[in-house]
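Predict both folds.
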Amino acid sequence: MDVFHIEGPVRLSGGVSVNGSKNAALPIMAAAILAPGKTVLKSVPHLSDISVCVELLGELGCKVCRGDNGDMSIDSTVIDNPVGEYEIVRKMRASICILGPLLARCGRAEVSMPGGCAIGDRPVNLHIRGLEALGAQIHLKNGYIIAEAPKGLRGADIFLGGPFGSTVLGTANVLMAATLAKGRTVIESAACEPEIADLANCLNKMGARISGIGSPRLTIEGVSELKAVEYEVIADRIEAGTFMAAAAITSSELRVRNCRLDDMMAVVHKLRGIGVTVEPNGDGCTVAASGSIKTADITTQPYPGFPTDLQAQFMALLSLADGNSVIIEKIFPDRYMHVAELNRMAANLRKEGPTVIVAGVKKLIAAPVMASDLRASAALVLAGLAAEGTTTISRVYHIDRGYERIEERLNPLGAKIVRENV
C-alpha cells in the first residue's frame, strides 16, 4: 500500500494543466454501450476509477483500448453479458451508470448495488424511480438491481428531485435510457452539473435528440438507434479547484491551464472573497495568494452552487484563515471524515451535525494521517504542503481514484512529495 511523505511548508510556482474530468468521463464511457461500434474518447484521465470502468465494460462484452495520450476506444459491437458484478461494482459508485444504457440496449440489466467512497448514505431510489417511469420492471435480489423492459422503454414525464437536491448519477442513468425510449421524455429537476451537460452533448453527437442542456428540465425525443462517435471530455473542474486551493494555502502563484472558469463561478467567488487573486489567462487562469487568508462561510449545493467535491480542500485552506469560518454540507451531511485528520495537524475544527466551525490557526503542524475518501485525501495533501514538518498520509489509493499521479504534477512546481510503498 502506498503512502505519501510531504515536507512543508513550501511555495509553489509555475504552471499545471488540468486533466479531463473523471466525473464526465465515467458516464460517457457508459454511454458507449448505447451505440454499437467503436466510440473514441479523448482526454480520458489515467485514474483507478477509470480502470475499474474499463474492467466493467470488458465484462459486459466491450473491447476497450487505452492510449498513453488520454485516448480511449470502446468497441461495444457485442454486449453479451449485461451484468455488473459485485466484485467490480463495489469498488466505484459511478458503476451504477451502466444500468440505464444496458436496459435500453439489451432490454435487461443486472447491476450490483454500488460501493465507493465512505462519504455517507447515497441511495439509488431515484435511479430506480426514474427507470420505472420509463416502463422498466425492477426488483432487488441478493444485492443486485434486476431491471427488465422486454417491450422496450417508453417516454414519460419524470421528477428526479430528492431530499438533497437533484441526483447527478440518477440524471445520467435516466437520460441515457430515455434516448432510446419510444416517444418524448421530460426530466424535471435534472442535475445541471457541467458533467451532465457534457454527457448530453456527447449523446446528441451520437444521434440523440436532447434539449434544455444545462437546465433543470431536459427534454428527450427518443430515437431508434445511436451511432459510435469521437468525443473529447471536458476539463475537470474539481481538479482545477484543488490546484487553485493549493496555490492559496501555500501563498503561491500558479498558472492553471485547461481550466473552464465558466464552470467554476462559485469557487472563484469564494477564492476572491478570502483574498486570493484569480485572473483569466488564455485557456485557464493565474491564481495568486499572499499574506493572510480571510474567513468565509461555505454551503455546498448542487451546481451552480459550491461543489461538495471541494468542501474538504477548502476546509484545509480555511483552517489557516484569520478568524472563524463556517462550512455547511448540504449534499452529503456526513462527509466530514477528514475533520479528525486535519485536527491531528493542529487545525481547530468543530463538527456540529452537518456544520463545521473552522477556527483559523497560525500554522498547521505535520502529523501521520489517514485518507478516508478521494476528496479528503486531496485536503490532507494540501494541508501537508502548508504544514511544518513531514506529513505522512496513508491509504493514498483514494487520491489515485481522482488525481492522476498528483505528486508528479505538484513536485515540479515546488512541492516535496515522496510516494512510498509500505
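Second protein follows, with its predicted C-alpha cells after the sequence.
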Amino acid sequence: MSRKEKVVFLSAHNSARSQMAEGLLRHLYGDCYLAYSAGVDPAEVDPLTVEVMAERGIDVSRQKSKSLKELWGTAFDVVAKIRDWDKEPCPFFPQGKRRAHKPLEDPLVAEGAEERMLALRAARDDLESWIVETFGR
C-alpha cells in the first residue's frame, strides 16, 4: 500500500472554508490523502458549516479549529490556501512540497442566516468541484 499524501488547507479563521475542504477531501479521497486544516486567526467551527456539510452526508462536527502554529513543523505534501485574495492576509506556511490556491470569498461575511446558508452552500459546491479537479485521481 502506498503512503497517503498529507494536505493542509489554510484560511483566515479555519471556521468554514478550510474545514469544508478538509471534510470534502477526507470524504472523497480519504484512501489517498490525509486532510488537515488551519487558520491564521482561528475561530470556532461555524455551526452552519457543520449543517451545510451534513446535507451532503459529511460529518465535520468533530473537527476542531486550529492555528497554523499547531501544525508548524509538520511536513505536508500539499499546502492549499483558500482565501479572498483582495481582503484576507496570506498565510505563510513553508512546510509543503507543492502549493495549491483557491480564491474564495469568506461565506461567513454574508448577513443573515438564510444568506449565510446560501453562501456556505455555494462555497461547499465550489470547493467540491475544485477538490475533484485538483486532487482527483
